[in-house]
Amino acid sequence: MTIRLRRIEGLKRSDLQAKRSLSEALLKRSAHQAKRSGLFTMHSIDDLIEIALKEDIGPADITTDNLVGPELEGVGVTIAKESLVVAGLEIAKRVFQRLDPEVVYKSGFKDGDKLEKGATIFQVSGKLSSLLKGERTALNFLQRLSGIATNVRFYVDKLKKNTVRLVDTRKTTPGLRFLEKYAVRVGGAFNHRMGLYDGVLIKDNHIAACGGITASVERIRSKISHLVKVEVEVSTLDEVKEAIAAGADVIMLDNMSIKQIKKSVALISGRAIVEISGGVTKDNFLRLADIGVDLISVGAFTHSARSMDISMRIKSTDK
Predict the structure, then answer these.
(1) What is the pTM (predicted TM-score) of this model?
(2) What pLDDT does residue 38 have?
(3) Which of 71, 120, 181, 219 is most open to solvent, judged by the fewest CB atoms within 10 Å of its CB?
(4) Residue 161 catalytic?
């Protein structure tokens, strides 16, 4: 256990440190990724919001534009219709402010807070037409991200003091990955790699293409920086042995039985970080966490999260 913990120094779970604002977290992450890859700058929050608003409003909101005068003022109150962990407050706020910079947003909560059914999540006030046009888009972001954060928090709370690190995968909604991975952090878990550009993970198809684990590791080591870790996916004990011999930094045990995982952990014996992947569910992850692995990747964090039930009531404030 001492060896394993030393190998993953700094991997202890934080006390839900992802409760910072969306703007701070995402801008910091974006800047970091932009420096490393030059790709991440393409995915700004405002770009996503513009796409979502254009998708919904199109050339015009033919209902609102023909029923609501431009001079009318209103207020919108967002209600949690079930208990949830909220995530995406800043992006919901930004939706309305992209439509109308004069919209006023108020909330007594921050991302990561747990809300009970019936809680008022936030309130917006301003031009009634802007509130009506932004309602669905703002709620779509908020419901999706809160759904992921709530789903992740279930796992994190059950884990309690176990030091295994729960991480996400790339099984995310196209175009929304950095937001969904932000929601994972809000829930209290951690991110695996953001994409194919910021981490080496040699999977079964790479191994087949290169002619084996040893050849794959040797080839990638000759082409990347010495600072980059190399992770190898394995599914048999023989592959575990080959990955160890090849000097893999991280060994991912893919869809192995508990018996195989225990044998693999014993074989690795602290010489590499051990990750479990595949078939991880709410019903079995605690058993997996007690085997002695370092990481458990959970695709269900994102691909199986359901959107939370959140509604907005809008009314005119003009007499």
Answers:
(1) 0.86
(2) 38
(3) 71
(4) no
Determine whether 254 is an active site residue. Answer: yes
Catalytic annotation present for 203: yes
The alpha carbon dihedral of 8, 12, 13, 19 has a sign of negative
State both tokens at 252: 């991912």
Query: Per residue in 7-36, pLDDT tens?
Result: 444 443 333 333 334 444 444 544 444 344
How far is residue 243's CA from residue 31's CA, in Å, rounded to a whole number?
34
Question: ∠ CA 86-92-96 to the nearest 5 degrees?
Answer: 155
Classify residue 4: in a domain, yes or no: no
Q: Which of 171, 193, 221, 263 is catalytic?
A: 171
- Tell me, yes or no, whether 39 and 72 share the same domain: yes
β-pairing verdict for 310-316 and 120-127: unpaired
Residue 127 included in any domain: yes
The verdict on whether 114 is a catalytic residue reads no
Q: Which of 42, 50, 18, 65 is nearest to 177 (CA)?
A: 42
Domain that holds residue 88: 22-150+306-316
Integer-rounded Cα Rg, in Å, for the chain is: 23
- What's the CA gap between 141 and 279, in Å, rounded? 28
Residue with tokens 């909220």: 86
Q: Tell me, yes or no, if 135 is annotated catalytic.
A: no
Catalytically annotated residue among 136, 221, 241, 262: 136
- Which ranges constitute the DSSP H helices of the chain? 2-7, 22-37, 45-57, 64-67, 89-99, 128-159, 177-187, 204-210, 213-221, 237-246, 258-268, 285-289, 300-303
Based on the fold, state whether residues 234 and 292 are members of the same structural domain.
yes
